[in-house]
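Annotators were shown the component list below and the corresponding predicted structure, then asked to write short factual statements about the assembly.
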Amino acid sequence: MAVIPTHRSARNGFELLSALTSRDLRLRYQGSIFGWAWSLIRPLALGAVLSFALGTVLQTGITASFLLTGLFPWFWFQGSIQGATTTFVGNGGLLKKVRFPRAVLPLSIVLGSTLQFALALPVLAAFLILDGYDPEPMWLVGVPLLFIVQLLLTCGVALFISTATVFFRDLEHITEVLLTLLFYSTPIIYSADHLPERYEWVIRINPLAPVMEGWRAVLLEGELPGASFGIAVALTGVAVALGWWTFRRLEDAFADVV
Amino acid sequence: MSSEVTTSAEAALSLRGVSRRYRFLEPGQELKTTLLHPLRAWRRRKGKPFSAVRGVTLDIFPGEFFAIVGANGSGKSTLLRLMAGLSRPSSGTVVARGRISTLLELGSGFHPQVSGRENAILNGLLMGRTRAEMEAQLPRIIEFAGLQQFIDQPMRTYSSGMYVRLGFAIAAFLEPEILLVDEVLAVGDAVFQERCYEHIEGLRDRGVTVVMVSHDLAAVQRFATRAALMERGRIVMVGEPADVLDEHLGRLAKSSPEIMRALDEAMEEQREAIEDLIGRSPEARARFERALERNPEFLRKMEEQQRAQAEAGERHE
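Structure shown to annotators:
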């Protein structure tokens, strides 16, 4: 047992989180000419390639707007998880030598990716409007709702994965494979209706699927996400609880393992 | 939980029966082995236990400059990490009363690509201060570290001396109530070391508790108000620094085969410190010589070593 005071204020926690986030973002784009624009270029480029392949060549009727409404939120999620995986392992020196609220490490990665997404949203909206979609009043309700749910879901998963990777280094590579798998088993480059019935369970157990469908419902149809979104909210709760519980249980052993 | 042990209410740091066990990792803990040879992995799951710190009970009071000495691997640094709350005791209790600053390693948490100023602020935030507090302290930190011209340069351009100076200045100016220092000052030059010790003395006079792990026996002699000697995870003696150092040197010289082995390794590192100490204080020299007389075996071994060195030197020429 150890009783060691920490003297943390909420203010300190917030300042620490934002200082780490801004440092990481600046370092990521330091010395690159396009800088922040890279967070737009990657989903836009993938969207262009896919809309050519699926829309123009294969004539599936999938449009650029359809793809981009899926790709932008996906890059947010993927960037967060990919970055969070190694954050504890990569900051071993810090964990061993300084006592601080360790959750700020993965959370700052998620926050950085979230900021990039938030700045990309207006670009996405502009693209949709140029493509002939009218801005809907529903956007004002639906976008914040989906934003919060996806943010919480991402935080939960990021906490879990970053903690587990400390004890199970293979997870760094497993996560990479799983993210590719998840990309194709989530309705991002297709719609859930395209899925044959016998594979429907795949998206039923995938908490990200209703979120992605939700983004489309809100941005493209101007509707609130469907009933399946309730499942996403519930699974998000589970992810947050599981992530936090795992982290709290294991964080004391970090300094001895990394 | 705390009802089972009584800790001293006045102590800044109270340790009661603190132990820390590690398990040696053995090969075959990877996922591959776990999946392919589950039985083997299960048997090896625990590894051999090793106690780095055993049953340490200790009270350190506000305003003390407490030094911990001992041979390499005696558990000093592990004990310091337990005090800092960076590692949990396997058994026993650690209670700290007061705001802790640690200086455990050079530039822990410094990012080489960002400036000294930004690193200093982030370091303070990590240790629990607010940005406003850090910005208010920064001029003094920069001044003490002597980095006026360099503070806005990325830290990859710093020398190791500049790293330590900034690290020490941050830890020291955060107004800790308890300051834990591991063997880091050795990197700075003599002038800076002197300023550090002066600053630590100033902190001590203001009632700050300082715990320092050190091989710099001369510094322990000069500054510590109390000292402890560690040997193989246990505290074997606590008392006046002079007495503890006496015992430390005496034990180093004792002719048991185990100590001799540790001595061969430790001696090399300690030699300079010991020679320095002997050079500085005639009293210490007398004590050292007394210790040598008590242990003819050690004396013989030392002479042998010197002879071997001299011969090697001659052959070299």
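Statements collected:
1. Chain B touches chain A through 41 residues (CB under 8 Å).
2. Chain B has a mean pLDDT of 79.
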